[in-house]
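Structural prep section.
Before we set up the soaks we want a predicted structure of the protein with xanthosine-5'-monophosphate in place, mainly to decide which crystallisation condition to try first. Input record follows.
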Amino acid sequence: MSETSNRPVLVVDFGAQYAQLIARRVREAQVYSEVVPHTASVSELLDKNPLAIVLSGGPSSVYDEGAPQVDPKLFEAGVPVFGICYGFQAMARALGGVVEHTGTREYGRTELGVTAEPGALHEELPGHHPVWMSHGDCVTGAPEGFTVTATSEGAPVAAFENVERRFAGVQYHPEVHHSPHGQEVLRRFLHDIAGIRPQWTTASIVDEQVERIRTQVGDGKAICGLSGGVDSAVAAALVQRAIGDRLTCVFVDHGLLRAGERTQVERDFVAATGVNLVTVDARERFLDALKGVSDPEEKRKIIGREFIRVFEQAERDLKAEGDYKFLVQGTLYPDVVESGGGAGTANIKSHHNVGGLPDDLQFELVEPLRALFKDEVRRVGTELGLPETIVQRQPFPGPGLGIRIIGEVTFERLELLRQADAIAREELTLAGLDRQIWQCPVVLLADVRSVGVQGDGRTYGHPIVLRPVSSEDAMTADWTRLPYEVLERISTRITNEVPDVNRVVLDVTSKPPGTIEWE
Ligand code: XMP
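Run finished without errors. Recording the tokens verbatim:
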């Protein structure tokens, strides 16, 4: 473990959605970063021993009442600072520059002009290049000692730097793809101006996490629930790397999985990691509990409740056999930031957060992905040798196919949906479309029948809905414009191969107004 890899670049969040993205970009420049709220005091920031501080964009005007300001003391600490958008203006103001409300707004793609003194930030970049702007106020006078390295029509000072003091800033958003040289500018600040060595690599993440897990778990034993998804698989693989067979994984087959998913865990994941695995076959139990239930929320409640019961029983069984004190969870960094617990350490608490967990099921949490973004988790998975099918898996809801059967869940309907879903997935993969779509729920309208004709006879079968969506974060989504030939192949194969299905329809609704799942 290197000494500097633990010291973060702190991204101060001024309340817009940019801070997490900036933190990711900093890490893409191979420098570890953390998001902190703008309410953190200068001494709280300095307590973290940061390598540099990035002030992010935000929605406010520096002149708004109650707008977050930057304490000028920050600039006396000898720590490099980079200001972005709002953070750039707040920085300018705190250092004695001039920020004005000129009435000229710039929003969206804007041409940036590099000045005759391009400095460390803009040297050798094209003299004019596009950047993404979003501002009302602008800096009209740089603080003393700063060089203005770029301008734009609406921002007389669009970038400045004081290399000696290791301060710099830009009015535009370097973190978004619409600023094609933005990542390079950020990289130059981090490596060239702040002088940080790029050391945050996938290999270093693995080494560091393995060491942390060993320190935390000592010679104890841990349990990890596998869902078949990326996060739990990578968390388990890391812990396995750290403590070997003192980790036992539990996989609950609730019968609502897609074709091949159990094999993926039982065969492929075990082959890749050598992990101890206990599979609990709870298929009948879930089907019994879901009998006669059509309401989506009720299904979710039942599935959630049964899952906890089955998992807790597995935990009890393991505890009866050995001294399992630790429970591994695949919590990711965005969850940590969003729940406001930046630096939080895992406490002894129940994993299900449902309260009233029996006393005999107290665990200490091990959360090896707590510092990582999803793309880093995938890279760590690859580094640990997990198969692509697991590492690149698209999101799949916990309640599984249970919420993709519109109507009562029965064994026959699940079988039918599994077949249709397998065909759709196979064809999408063959067509090379997996990376283009976020996910493609395949839905069985079990309570609907329509008339069809197959061979010589009339049919009265069920429709299957294809719901391919493109999305960044599942909060909003658009329906994916799949090539007609691919849709045709999927439709032909499903109606030919899946019994009792005589129609395939395409969902062309964005989110909002539709959700991604049908239930
Ligand atoms: P919706 O349908 O709300 O889905 O647009 C957004 C994302 O969340 C997934 N999803 C779930 N995941 N339990 C989960 O673990 C659930 O009950 C659940 N419902 C939806 C969905 O697949 C999509 O990625």
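Observations: The CA atoms of residues 315 and 361 lie 8 Å apart.
Flagged for discussion at group meeting.
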